[in-house]
Amino acid sequence: MNVQRAQEIASSPVMANVLCYGIPIYIQHVNEQSETARIYALNKPEEEREVPLYSLTEEEQALD
């Protein structure tokens, strides 16, 4: 994921479907200089960690 898209997702009030190595996550903060993001898994919000942006993927929302 690129820096700009990660920042858009982090600042958006709408929850995006973002995965880190296949695990649904929430992006808290994006560090533009180091190209990393502070994230936590949706099922483990107490376990925050810093990951490289390349490890994040955005899944398309299914339209009903």
What does this structure look like?
Pfam families: SspH. Belongs to the SspH family. Keywords: Sporulation. By secondary structure, the protein is mainly beta. The chain is built from one helix and five strands. A five-stranded antiparallel beta sheet has the order 4-3-2-1-5. A hairpin with a 2-residue loop joins β1 and β2 (23-31).
Gist of the model:
This protein is mainly β and 64 residues long. Helix content is 14%, strand content 47%. A hairpin with a 4-residue loop joins strand 2 (23-31) and strand 3.
What keyword list fits this structure?
64 residues, 47% strand
pLDDT < 50 stretches: none
- Give the strand order of the largest sheet, numbering strands 1, 2, ... along the chain: 4-3-2-1-5
Straight-line N-to-C gap: 26 Å
Helix count from the secondary structure assignment: 1
The secondary-structure class comes to: mainly beta
The backbone outline, from C-alpha atoms, is globular
Mean pLDDT: 94
* Proportion in helices: 10-25%
Biggest beta-sheet profile: 5 strands, antiparallel
The SSE string, one letter per element, is HEEEEE
